[in-house]
Design a protein that fits this description.
Blueprint (H helix, E strand, L loop, with lengths): L1 H31 L7 E2 L11 E4 L7 H16 L3 E4 L13 H14 L5 E4 L2 E4 L3 H14 L1
Amino acid sequence: MGFLKFVLFAAVLGGAGHYAWKSYHERSAMAQATSDSGFVRIAPVDGTSANTVLILAPENCPSEQARHATELAERLTRMGIPFKTGSTMAFSDPGHNPTADEIAAMDRGVAIFNQGAPMVFVNDMAKSNPTAEEVAYEFKRARSRQ
């Protein structure tokens, strides 16, 4: 009976260790893909361009999220940052079977999308519900890398 308890204990310990390692690895990968302003590197999204911010929010909706998207657009206009708006997101077709890194980048994009609108894209970086200052910082950072 002692051996069976030992095997059960080892299995539980191994499972817990595996879960902890996987969780740590996922958090670490997300942290490495995150900029100082909290934007996260994701897979390329249709409709994004190098010099224009994309704001996604529900169309013709009186929700708090849609109101925040409108306020964000107004602030970006005053700051002189070019943007366009939309209501849908689609990842650009990589033209081949996606690699593990590309799949991880798409998963990060979906996770951010699920956090709620407005979702803002600056090149290949995205963030849910950012402030205008965070968008401006990320926009200027992205332009300095070009």
